[in-house]
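Listing S7. Sequence submitted for prediction.
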Amino acid sequence: MTLMTFVVSLTLFISSLVTMAVFMLAIIKCDSKKHLYFLPMILCVLLFVLGYLFEINSPTDESVLVSHMLMYCGASFVVPLYLLFILDITNIKIRRWQIIAIIGQAVVLFIFMVSSPYQNLYFKEYFLSDNPHLKSFDFIPGVLYMPLHYIQYGLGFLAILLLLRNFLRTDTFAKRRAFLLLISGLLPLIANILFALRLKLFNGLNMTPVSMVLVVIVLYVTITRYKLFDLIPFASKQAIQSMKDALIVLDYNKYIIDTNPSAVEIFPQIKRRGESIDAADNLPLELIRALDESEEHLQNIEFSLEEENLRHYNANITRISDKGRLYGWLILIYDITDTVNLLIELEHHATFDTLTGIHNRRYFIEYVTIRLHEAERLKQCAAVILFDIDKFKDVNDTYGHAAGDEVLSSIAKLISAQMRPYDLFARYGGEEFILFLPDTNKRLAIEIAERIRTSAENHVIQYESVSITRTLSIGLAVSSNGTDKLETLIEIADAALYRAKEGGRNRVEFS
Protein backbone atom coordinates (compact mmCIF):
# COMPACT_ATOMS: atom_id res chain seq x y z
CA MET A 1 0.00 0.00 0.00
CA THR A 2 1.42 3.36 -1.04
CA LEU A 3 1.46 6.38 1.26
CA MET A 4 -1.12 8.13 -0.90
CA THR A 5 -3.44 5.11 -0.75
CA PHE A 6 -3.10 5.01 3.03
CA VAL A 7 -3.81 8.73 3.51
CA VAL A 8 -6.81 8.72 1.14
CA SER A 9 -8.14 5.49 2.69
CA LEU A 10 -7.89 6.89 6.21
CA THR A 11 -9.61 10.10 5.11
CA LEU A 12 -12.43 8.16 3.43
CA PHE A 13 -12.83 5.85 6.42
CA ILE A 14 -13.15 8.81 8.81
CA SER A 15 -15.55 10.44 6.36
CA SER A 16 -17.74 7.33 6.33
CA LEU A 17 -17.89 7.39 10.14
CA VAL A 18 -18.80 11.09 10.15
CA THR A 19 -21.42 10.43 7.45
CA MET A 20 -23.05 7.75 9.61
CA ALA A 21 -22.97 10.16 12.55
CA VAL A 22 -24.65 12.85 10.45
CA PHE A 23 -27.29 10.32 9.41
CA MET A 24 -28.08 9.46 13.03
CA LEU A 25 -27.93 13.12 14.08
CA ALA A 26 -30.44 14.06 11.38
CA ILE A 27 -32.87 11.43 12.67
CA ILE A 28 -32.52 12.75 16.24
CA LYS A 29 -32.58 16.47 15.47
CA CYS A 30 -35.25 16.51 12.79
CA ASP A 31 -38.68 17.63 14.09
CA SER A 32 -40.24 18.03 10.64
CA LYS A 33 -40.60 16.04 7.43
CA LYS A 34 -37.60 17.73 5.89
CA HIS A 35 -35.57 14.51 6.28
CA LEU A 36 -37.64 12.81 3.53
CA TYR A 37 -34.88 13.35 0.96
CA PHE A 38 -32.01 14.24 3.29
CA LEU A 39 -31.64 10.80 4.89
CA PRO A 40 -31.51 8.78 1.64
CA MET A 41 -29.12 11.43 0.27
CA ILE A 42 -26.76 10.85 3.21
CA LEU A 43 -26.98 7.08 2.67
CA CYS A 44 -26.03 7.59 -0.98
CA VAL A 45 -23.09 9.75 0.11
CA LEU A 46 -22.03 6.90 2.41
CA LEU A 47 -22.21 4.38 -0.47
CA PHE A 48 -20.26 6.80 -2.65
CA VAL A 49 -17.46 7.16 -0.08
CA LEU A 50 -17.33 3.45 0.84
CA GLY A 51 -17.38 2.44 -2.84
CA TYR A 52 -14.33 4.56 -3.58
CA LEU A 53 -12.62 3.33 -0.39
CA PHE A 54 -13.08 -0.28 -1.56
CA GLU A 55 -12.03 0.62 -5.11
CA ILE A 56 -8.61 2.00 -4.22
CA ASN A 57 -7.98 -0.99 -1.93
CA SER A 58 -9.32 -3.72 -4.26
CA PRO A 59 -6.82 -6.54 -4.96
CA THR A 60 -8.14 -7.54 -8.41
CA ASP A 61 -9.53 -5.91 -11.54
CA GLU A 62 -12.93 -7.57 -10.96
CA SER A 63 -13.20 -6.24 -7.45
CA VAL A 64 -12.29 -2.74 -8.68
CA LEU A 65 -15.22 -2.88 -11.12
CA VAL A 66 -17.59 -4.15 -8.42
CA SER A 67 -16.43 -1.39 -6.06
CA HIS A 68 -16.95 1.20 -8.77
CA MET A 69 -20.49 -0.07 -9.31
CA LEU A 70 -21.09 0.22 -5.56
CA MET A 71 -19.81 3.78 -5.72
CA TYR A 72 -22.25 4.51 -8.56
CA CYS A 73 -25.11 3.15 -6.44
CA GLY A 74 -24.61 6.25 -4.34
CA ALA A 75 -23.15 8.69 -6.89
CA SER A 76 -26.06 8.37 -9.33
CA PHE A 77 -28.62 9.45 -6.73
CA VAL A 78 -26.77 12.09 -4.67
CA VAL A 79 -27.44 15.06 -6.97
CA PRO A 80 -31.17 14.28 -7.66
CA LEU A 81 -31.82 13.74 -3.93
CA TYR A 82 -29.87 16.90 -3.10
CA LEU A 83 -32.06 18.90 -5.51
CA LEU A 84 -35.25 17.41 -4.05
CA PHE A 85 -33.97 18.21 -0.56
CA ILE A 86 -33.27 21.85 -1.50
CA LEU A 87 -36.69 22.16 -3.18
CA ASP A 88 -38.26 20.79 0.00
CA ILE A 89 -36.53 23.06 2.52
CA THR A 90 -37.11 26.13 0.34
CA ASN A 91 -40.79 25.22 0.22
CA ILE A 92 -40.98 24.95 -3.57
CA LYS A 93 -43.71 22.49 -4.50
CA ILE A 94 -43.26 20.26 -7.54
CA ARG A 95 -45.56 17.67 -9.04
CA ARG A 96 -45.20 13.93 -8.52
CA TRP A 97 -44.26 13.30 -12.15
CA GLN A 98 -41.41 15.82 -11.78
CA ILE A 99 -40.09 13.94 -8.74
CA ILE A 100 -40.33 10.68 -10.70
CA ALA A 101 -38.46 12.27 -13.65
CA ILE A 102 -35.64 13.52 -11.39
CA ILE A 103 -35.20 10.14 -9.69
CA GLY A 104 -35.76 8.31 -12.99
CA GLN A 105 -32.76 10.07 -14.54
CA ALA A 106 -30.56 8.71 -11.75
CA VAL A 107 -31.97 5.20 -12.28
CA VAL A 108 -31.16 5.41 -16.02
CA LEU A 109 -27.62 6.57 -15.26
CA PHE A 110 -27.11 3.69 -12.82
CA ILE A 111 -28.53 1.10 -15.26
CA PHE A 112 -26.22 2.20 -18.07
CA MET A 113 -23.26 2.07 -15.71
CA VAL A 114 -23.86 -1.42 -14.26
CA SER A 115 -24.68 -2.82 -17.70
CA SER A 116 -21.36 -1.61 -19.11
CA PRO A 117 -20.01 -5.20 -19.55
CA TYR A 118 -22.82 -5.78 -22.08
CA GLN A 119 -22.79 -2.47 -23.98
CA ASN A 120 -20.32 0.35 -24.64
CA LEU A 121 -22.66 3.34 -24.56
CA TYR A 122 -21.60 4.58 -21.14
CA PHE A 123 -18.08 3.16 -20.87
CA LYS A 124 -16.51 2.45 -24.25
CA GLU A 125 -13.71 0.66 -22.44
CA TYR A 126 -12.78 0.29 -18.78
CA PHE A 127 -9.66 -1.01 -17.09
CA LEU A 128 -7.49 -0.78 -13.98
CA SER A 129 -5.38 2.37 -14.05
CA ASP A 130 -1.62 2.03 -14.21
CA ASN A 131 -1.18 4.80 -11.66
CA PRO A 132 1.64 3.68 -9.29
CA HIS A 133 0.42 6.00 -6.53
CA LEU A 134 -3.25 5.04 -6.38
CA LYS A 135 -5.10 2.00 -7.73
CA SER A 136 -8.40 3.01 -9.32
CA PHE A 137 -10.96 2.34 -12.02
CA ASP A 138 -10.24 4.02 -15.36
CA PHE A 139 -12.20 4.13 -18.58
CA ILE A 140 -12.76 5.63 -22.02
CA PRO A 141 -16.17 7.35 -22.02
CA GLY A 142 -18.93 6.20 -24.37
CA VAL A 143 -21.40 8.33 -26.32
CA LEU A 144 -23.88 8.59 -23.43
CA TYR A 145 -21.36 9.31 -20.70
CA MET A 146 -21.25 13.12 -20.99
CA PRO A 147 -24.95 13.64 -21.96
CA LEU A 148 -26.07 11.78 -18.82
CA HIS A 149 -23.59 13.76 -16.77
CA TYR A 150 -24.82 17.02 -18.29
CA ILE A 151 -28.29 16.23 -16.92
CA GLN A 152 -26.78 15.66 -13.47
CA TYR A 153 -24.89 18.93 -13.72
CA GLY A 154 -28.10 20.73 -14.70
CA LEU A 155 -29.87 19.38 -11.63
CA GLY A 156 -26.90 20.37 -9.49
CA PHE A 157 -26.74 23.91 -10.87
CA LEU A 158 -30.50 24.29 -10.33
CA ALA A 159 -30.03 23.39 -6.64
CA ILE A 160 -27.14 25.88 -6.44
CA LEU A 161 -29.26 28.66 -7.96
CA LEU A 162 -32.07 27.99 -5.48
CA LEU A 163 -29.63 28.16 -2.59
CA LEU A 164 -28.02 31.30 -3.99
CA ARG A 165 -31.43 32.98 -4.19
CA ASN A 166 -32.15 32.06 -0.57
CA PHE A 167 -28.70 33.21 0.47
CA LEU A 168 -29.38 36.66 -0.99
CA ARG A 169 -32.88 36.93 0.55
CA THR A 170 -32.42 35.69 4.11
CA ASP A 171 -31.26 37.42 7.29
CA THR A 172 -27.89 37.01 9.00
CA PHE A 173 -28.54 33.75 10.84
CA ALA A 174 -30.28 32.00 7.96
CA LYS A 175 -27.73 33.48 5.52
CA ARG A 176 -24.93 31.54 7.22
CA ARG A 177 -26.94 28.35 7.00
CA ALA A 178 -27.75 29.01 3.34
CA PHE A 179 -24.06 29.70 2.65
CA LEU A 180 -23.01 26.37 4.18
CA LEU A 181 -25.63 24.51 2.16
CA LEU A 182 -24.38 26.35 -0.92
CA ILE A 183 -20.83 25.17 -0.22
CA SER A 184 -22.07 21.60 0.33
CA GLY A 185 -23.51 21.65 -3.18
CA LEU A 186 -20.67 23.43 -4.95
CA LEU A 187 -17.77 21.28 -3.69
CA PRO A 188 -18.79 17.89 -5.14
CA LEU A 189 -20.20 19.50 -8.28
CA ILE A 190 -16.89 21.17 -9.10
CA ALA A 191 -14.96 18.01 -8.19
CA ASN A 192 -17.17 15.84 -10.42
CA ILE A 193 -16.81 18.23 -13.36
CA LEU A 194 -13.03 17.99 -13.02
CA PHE A 195 -13.25 14.16 -12.92
CA ALA A 196 -15.66 13.98 -15.89
CA LEU A 197 -13.32 16.15 -17.97
CA ARG A 198 -10.67 13.45 -17.40
CA LEU A 199 -8.22 15.87 -15.81
CA LYS A 200 -5.58 13.74 -14.06
CA LEU A 201 -5.16 15.94 -11.02
CA PHE A 202 -3.49 14.87 -7.76
CA ASN A 203 -2.05 11.68 -9.29
CA GLY A 204 -5.39 10.52 -10.66
CA LEU A 205 -7.32 10.97 -7.41
CA ASN A 206 -11.12 11.14 -7.90
CA MET A 207 -11.88 14.35 -6.05
CA THR A 208 -15.66 13.79 -5.94
CA PRO A 209 -15.81 11.23 -3.12
CA VAL A 210 -12.92 12.99 -1.38
CA SER A 211 -14.88 16.26 -1.49
CA MET A 212 -17.65 14.41 0.36
CA VAL A 213 -15.40 14.53 3.43
CA LEU A 214 -15.84 18.31 3.49
CA VAL A 215 -19.51 18.03 2.57
CA VAL A 216 -20.41 15.85 5.54
CA ILE A 217 -18.49 18.19 7.87
CA VAL A 218 -20.38 21.16 6.46
CA LEU A 219 -23.70 19.33 6.88
CA TYR A 220 -22.77 18.39 10.46
CA VAL A 221 -22.11 22.06 11.31
CA THR A 222 -25.33 23.10 9.57
CA ILE A 223 -27.38 20.64 11.63
CA THR A 224 -25.74 21.25 15.00
CA ARG A 225 -24.89 24.95 14.99
CA TYR A 226 -27.34 26.44 12.51
CA LYS A 227 -30.36 24.25 13.35
CA LEU A 228 -31.11 22.88 9.89
CA PHE A 229 -33.99 20.75 11.20
CA ASP A 230 -35.23 22.90 14.07
CA LEU A 231 -38.80 24.03 14.72
CA ILE A 232 -38.53 27.05 12.43
CA PRO A 233 -36.90 25.53 9.37
CA PHE A 234 -35.27 27.27 6.48
CA ALA A 235 -38.49 27.50 4.46
CA SER A 236 -40.48 28.98 7.33
CA LYS A 237 -37.91 31.71 7.79
CA GLN A 238 -38.08 32.45 4.08
CA ALA A 239 -41.88 32.63 4.24
CA ILE A 240 -41.69 35.10 7.14
CA GLN A 241 -39.19 37.24 5.23
CA SER A 242 -41.44 37.33 2.16
CA MET A 243 -44.64 38.16 4.09
CA LYS A 244 -46.45 41.33 3.06
CA ASP A 245 -47.55 41.79 6.66
CA ALA A 246 -45.02 43.24 9.08
CA LEU A 247 -43.58 41.00 11.82
CA ILE A 248 -41.63 42.13 14.90
CA VAL A 249 -40.40 39.75 17.62
CA LEU A 250 -39.37 41.17 21.00
CA ASP A 251 -37.79 39.50 24.00
CA TYR A 252 -39.16 39.96 27.53
CA ASN A 253 -37.14 43.20 27.90
CA LYS A 254 -38.74 44.52 24.70
CA TYR A 255 -35.51 44.26 22.74
CA ILE A 256 -35.89 43.56 19.03
CA ILE A 257 -34.72 40.06 18.16
CA ASP A 258 -36.25 39.66 14.72
CA THR A 259 -38.05 41.63 12.00
CA ASN A 260 -38.99 41.09 8.39
CA PRO A 261 -38.54 43.52 5.45
CA SER A 262 -42.18 44.63 5.63
CA ALA A 263 -41.67 45.78 9.24
CA VAL A 264 -38.51 47.68 8.30
CA GLU A 265 -40.39 49.33 5.43
CA ILE A 266 -43.01 50.67 7.86
CA PHE A 267 -40.53 51.46 10.69
CA PRO A 268 -37.03 52.00 9.17
CA GLN A 269 -35.71 52.86 12.63
CA ILE A 270 -36.11 49.26 13.91
CA LYS A 271 -33.76 47.77 11.33
CA ARG A 272 -31.03 47.09 13.89
CA ARG A 273 -31.62 44.07 16.10
CA GLY A 274 -30.68 44.12 19.76
CA GLU A 275 -32.11 47.58 20.37
CA SER A 276 -35.03 48.41 22.64
CA ILE A 277 -38.24 49.12 20.79
CA ASP A 278 -38.83 51.98 23.27
CA ALA A 279 -35.78 53.74 21.78
CA ALA A 280 -37.15 53.59 18.25
CA ASP A 281 -38.36 56.93 16.93
CA ASN A 282 -41.76 57.54 15.36
CA LEU A 283 -43.37 54.40 16.72
CA PRO A 284 -47.03 55.09 17.48
CA LEU A 285 -47.82 55.66 21.13
CA GLU A 286 -50.71 53.20 20.85
CA LEU A 287 -48.22 50.41 20.12
CA ILE A 288 -45.82 51.29 22.94
CA ARG A 289 -48.70 51.71 25.39
CA ALA A 290 -50.19 48.36 24.42
CA LEU A 291 -46.91 46.62 25.25
CA ASP A 292 -46.73 48.36 28.62
CA GLU A 293 -50.34 47.76 29.61
CA SER A 294 -51.20 44.45 27.96
CA GLU A 295 -51.86 41.60 30.36
CA GLU A 296 -53.92 39.65 27.85
CA HIS A 297 -52.71 36.90 25.57
CA LEU A 298 -53.81 38.85 22.49
CA GLN A 299 -54.38 42.55 22.06
CA ASN A 300 -55.61 44.29 18.93
CA ILE A 301 -54.96 47.98 18.22
CA GLU A 302 -55.28 50.31 15.26
CA PHE A 303 -53.04 53.26 14.43
CA SER A 304 -52.26 55.57 11.52
CA LEU A 305 -48.97 56.93 10.17
CA GLU A 306 -48.45 60.02 8.04
CA GLU A 307 -46.16 58.80 5.27
CA GLU A 308 -46.43 60.04 1.69
CA ASN A 309 -50.12 59.51 2.24
CA LEU A 310 -51.98 58.71 5.44
CA ARG A 311 -51.85 54.96 5.99
CA HIS A 312 -53.79 52.89 8.52
CA TYR A 313 -52.58 49.75 10.31
CA ASN A 314 -53.93 47.03 12.57
CA ALA A 315 -51.54 45.39 15.03
CA ASN A 316 -52.04 42.07 16.80
CA ILE A 317 -49.81 41.85 19.88
CA THR A 318 -49.39 38.33 21.24
CA ARG A 319 -47.59 37.53 24.48
CA ILE A 320 -45.09 34.69 24.11
CA SER A 321 -45.36 32.87 27.42
CA ASP A 322 -45.30 29.42 28.94
CA LYS A 323 -46.78 28.44 32.30
CA GLY A 324 -47.23 32.08 33.21
CA ARG A 325 -43.65 33.05 32.38
CA LEU A 326 -43.25 35.86 29.82
CA TYR A 327 -40.63 35.28 27.12
CA GLY A 328 -41.48 38.14 24.77
CA TRP A 329 -44.00 39.55 22.32
CA LEU A 330 -44.96 38.80 18.75
CA ILE A 331 -46.28 41.84 16.87
CA LEU A 332 -48.04 41.23 13.56
CA ILE A 333 -49.01 44.40 11.68
CA TYR A 334 -51.46 44.51 8.78
CA ASP A 335 -51.85 47.40 6.36
CA ILE A 336 -55.59 48.14 6.41
CA THR A 337 -55.44 51.40 4.44
CA ASP A 338 -57.53 50.07 1.57
CA THR A 339 -60.14 48.72 3.98
CA VAL A 340 -60.34 51.98 5.94
CA ASN A 341 -60.56 54.05 2.76
CA LEU A 342 -63.29 51.75 1.47
CA LEU A 343 -65.25 52.15 4.71
CA ILE A 344 -64.84 55.93 4.52
CA GLU A 345 -66.04 55.85 0.93
CA LEU A 346 -68.99 53.64 1.84
CA GLU A 347 -69.86 55.90 4.75
CA HIS A 348 -69.67 58.89 2.42
CA HIS A 349 -72.00 57.19 -0.06
CA ALA A 350 -74.35 56.33 2.79
CA THR A 351 -74.65 59.96 3.94
CA PHE A 352 -74.01 62.03 0.81
CA ASP A 353 -75.80 62.36 -2.52
CA THR A 354 -73.48 61.19 -5.29
CA LEU A 355 -74.62 63.70 -7.91
CA THR A 356 -74.74 66.96 -5.95
CA GLY A 357 -72.21 66.21 -3.19
CA ILE A 358 -74.59 67.38 -0.45
CA HIS A 359 -76.09 65.17 2.26
CA ASN A 360 -78.82 62.71 1.35
CA ARG A 361 -82.31 62.26 2.75
CA ARG A 362 -81.33 59.45 5.14
CA TYR A 363 -78.63 61.48 6.85
CA PHE A 364 -80.87 64.56 7.01
CA ILE A 365 -83.62 62.69 8.85
CA GLU A 366 -81.20 61.06 11.34
CA TYR A 367 -79.32 64.30 12.04
CA VAL A 368 -82.29 66.67 12.25
CA THR A 369 -84.20 64.30 14.52
CA ILE A 370 -81.36 64.62 17.04
CA ARG A 371 -81.16 68.41 16.58
CA LEU A 372 -84.89 68.79 17.21
CA HIS A 373 -84.56 66.93 20.50
CA GLU A 374 -81.81 69.38 21.41
CA ALA A 375 -84.02 72.33 20.35
CA GLU A 376 -86.84 70.99 22.54
CA ARG A 377 -84.50 70.71 25.50
CA LEU A 378 -83.24 74.29 24.97
CA LYS A 379 -86.74 75.55 24.00
CA GLN A 380 -85.39 76.93 20.73
CA CYS A 381 -87.28 77.46 17.50
CA ALA A 382 -86.27 75.74 14.27
CA ALA A 383 -87.35 75.81 10.63
CA VAL A 384 -87.53 73.34 7.76
CA ILE A 385 -87.59 74.57 4.14
CA LEU A 386 -88.48 72.43 1.11
CA PHE A 387 -87.33 73.53 -2.37
CA ASP A 388 -88.59 72.26 -5.71
CA ILE A 389 -87.07 73.26 -9.06
CA ASP A 390 -89.85 74.63 -11.24
CA LYS A 391 -90.54 72.84 -14.55
CA PHE A 392 -87.48 70.63 -14.11
CA LYS A 393 -88.98 67.96 -16.37
CA ASP A 394 -88.81 70.42 -19.27
CA VAL A 395 -85.02 70.56 -18.90
CA ASN A 396 -84.70 66.78 -19.22
CA ASP A 397 -87.11 66.64 -22.13
CA THR A 398 -85.49 69.54 -24.00
CA TYR A 399 -81.78 69.19 -23.30
CA GLY A 400 -81.44 65.64 -21.95
CA HIS A 401 -80.74 64.12 -18.54
CA ALA A 402 -77.12 65.28 -18.50
CA ALA A 403 -78.39 68.87 -18.60
CA GLY A 404 -80.83 68.02 -15.79
CA ASP A 405 -77.96 66.70 -13.69
CA GLU A 406 -76.04 69.92 -14.29
CA VAL A 407 -79.05 71.99 -13.16
CA LEU A 408 -79.39 69.92 -9.96
CA SER A 409 -75.68 70.28 -9.15
CA SER A 410 -75.64 74.01 -9.90
CA ILE A 411 -78.73 74.76 -7.76
CA ALA A 412 -77.27 72.66 -4.90
CA LYS A 413 -74.04 74.71 -5.01
CA LEU A 414 -76.03 77.95 -5.14
CA ILE A 415 -78.03 77.13 -2.00
CA SER A 416 -75.01 75.65 -0.16
CA ALA A 417 -73.11 78.90 -0.66
CA GLN A 418 -75.83 80.82 1.24
CA MET A 419 -76.05 78.47 4.24
CA ARG A 420 -74.86 79.29 7.72
CA PRO A 421 -72.17 76.94 9.15
CA TYR A 422 -74.66 75.23 11.45
CA ASP A 423 -77.46 74.73 8.89
CA LEU A 424 -77.97 71.37 7.20
CA PHE A 425 -78.80 71.10 3.51
CA ALA A 426 -79.73 67.85 1.74
CA ARG A 427 -81.22 66.46 -1.41
CA TYR A 428 -84.67 65.18 -0.47
CA GLY A 429 -85.42 63.34 -3.70
CA GLY A 430 -85.66 63.99 -7.44
CA GLU A 431 -85.60 67.77 -7.96
CA GLU A 432 -86.48 68.51 -4.31
CA PHE A 433 -84.06 69.83 -1.69
CA ILE A 434 -84.52 70.36 2.05
CA LEU A 435 -82.87 72.76 4.46
CA PHE A 436 -82.84 72.68 8.29
CA LEU A 437 -82.35 75.99 10.08
CA PRO A 438 -81.69 75.59 13.84
CA ASP A 439 -82.46 78.46 16.24
CA THR A 440 -84.38 80.29 13.47
CA ASN A 441 -87.76 81.98 13.89
CA LYS A 442 -90.42 82.45 11.23
CA ARG A 443 -89.31 85.92 10.18
CA LEU A 444 -85.68 84.93 9.68
CA ALA A 445 -86.66 81.68 7.91
CA ILE A 446 -88.81 83.63 5.41
CA GLU A 447 -85.94 86.08 4.86
CA ILE A 448 -83.50 83.23 4.12
CA ALA A 449 -85.99 81.48 1.84
CA GLU A 450 -86.64 84.66 -0.12
CA ARG A 451 -82.92 85.32 -0.51
CA ILE A 452 -82.41 81.84 -1.92
CA ARG A 453 -85.43 82.18 -4.23
CA THR A 454 -84.12 85.48 -5.61
CA SER A 455 -80.63 84.05 -6.15
CA ALA A 456 -82.07 81.09 -8.08
CA GLU A 457 -84.24 83.39 -10.19
CA ASN A 458 -81.17 85.36 -11.29
CA HIS A 459 -78.91 82.32 -11.64
CA VAL A 460 -77.86 81.25 -15.15
CA ILE A 461 -76.69 77.67 -15.64
CA GLN A 462 -74.32 77.04 -18.55
CA TYR A 463 -74.62 73.63 -20.16
CA GLU A 464 -72.48 73.21 -23.25
CA SER A 465 -73.61 76.12 -25.49
CA VAL A 466 -77.00 76.53 -23.76
CA SER A 467 -77.94 78.94 -20.97
CA ILE A 468 -80.60 77.54 -18.65
CA THR A 469 -82.53 79.40 -15.95
CA ARG A 470 -84.88 77.86 -13.43
CA THR A 471 -86.85 79.21 -10.48
CA LEU A 472 -87.67 77.62 -7.13
CA SER A 473 -90.98 76.99 -5.41
CA ILE A 474 -90.43 77.00 -1.65
CA GLY A 475 -92.49 75.69 1.29
CA LEU A 476 -91.57 76.57 4.86
CA ALA A 477 -92.49 75.20 8.29
CA VAL A 478 -91.41 76.53 11.70
CA SER A 479 -91.40 74.90 15.15
CA SER A 480 -91.66 77.61 17.78
CA ASN A 481 -90.10 75.61 20.63
CA GLY A 482 -88.75 72.44 19.01
CA THR A 483 -91.62 70.26 20.17
CA ASP A 484 -92.83 69.38 16.68
CA LYS A 485 -91.63 66.12 15.18
CA LEU A 486 -89.64 66.20 11.96
CA GLU A 487 -92.36 64.26 10.10
CA THR A 488 -94.89 66.95 11.07
CA LEU A 489 -92.63 69.79 9.94
CA ILE A 490 -91.96 68.10 6.60
CA GLU A 491 -95.69 67.55 6.04
CA ILE A 492 -96.41 71.25 6.77
CA ALA A 493 -93.54 72.41 4.52
CA ASP A 494 -94.70 70.06 1.76
CA ALA A 495 -98.24 71.45 1.94
CA ALA A 496 -96.82 74.98 1.74
CA LEU A 497 -94.70 73.93 -1.25
CA TYR A 498 -97.81 72.63 -2.98
CA ARG A 499 -99.50 76.00 -2.45
CA ALA A 500 -96.46 77.78 -3.89
CA LYS A 501 -96.69 75.72 -7.07
CA GLU A 502 -100.44 76.17 -7.30
CA GLY A 503 -99.98 79.90 -6.76
CA GLY A 504 -97.84 80.29 -9.87
CA ARG A 505 -94.39 78.94 -8.80
CA ASN A 506 -91.27 80.98 -7.99
CA ARG A 507 -92.60 81.95 -4.60
CA VAL A 508 -92.32 81.19 -0.89
CA GLU A 509 -95.28 79.88 1.10
CA PHE A 510 -95.33 79.14 4.83
CA SER A 511 -97.68 77.69 7.41
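Caption to Listing S7: primary sequence and predicted C-alpha coordinates for the chain studied. Residues 243-337 form a domain with the Beta-Lactamase fold (CATH 3.30.450.20). Residues 61-89 form the longest helix (29 residues).
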